Amino acid sequence: QVQLVESGGGMVQPGDSLRVSCATSERIFSNMGWFRQAPGKEREFVAVINWNGDSTRYADSVKGRFTISRDNTNTKNVVYLQMNSLKPEDTAVYYCAASATWSDRPTSYAYWGQGTQVTVSS
């Protein structure tokens, strides 16, 4: 079973940048998505990238500030989420996930990481 491991979370100030990463346990040719969940809120879509990295899609709330990318060159995949101009409302646990379908719905994703906390606060 594919395992996903996120890293790179932390606490930053508003306006700062942060990059979170997601490493897979084996090379997979799946769409990879980033989702986030704030306390008391439902898990929401952030971004998705297709298997070879030439198509991406973003939630309106992060468009122009976040960039998703992936590295398929090794025996494993690494998916990145570069987050710029961070705002307090970006505070959440960020999860990466893998899906065979092109989707922004969490229920379409079969494999999930454990999440990494991102806190934006002054």
Report what the structure shows.
Strands 2, 4, 5, 6, 9, 10 and 11 form a seven-stranded mixed β-sheet that branches. This protein has a four-stranded antiparallel β-sheet with strand order 1-3-8-7, with no helix packed on it. By secondary structure, it is an all-beta fold. Helix content is 0%, strand content 47%.
What is the tally of helical segments? 0
Radius of gyration equals 13 Å
As residue ranges, the low-confidence spans are none
Q: Main β-sheet, in a few words?
A: 7 strands, mixed
Q: What is the molecular shape? A: globular
Q: Helical content, roughly? A: under 10%
Tell me the β content.
over 45%
Straight-line N-to-C gap: 40 Å
Layout of strands and helices, then pairs:
Elements: E1 4-7, E2 10-12, E3 18-24, E4 31-37, E5 44-49, E6 56-58, E7 66-71, E8 78-83, E9 92-99, E10 111-112, E11 116-120
Features:
single chain; 122 residues; mainly beta; four-stranded antiparallel sheet; globular
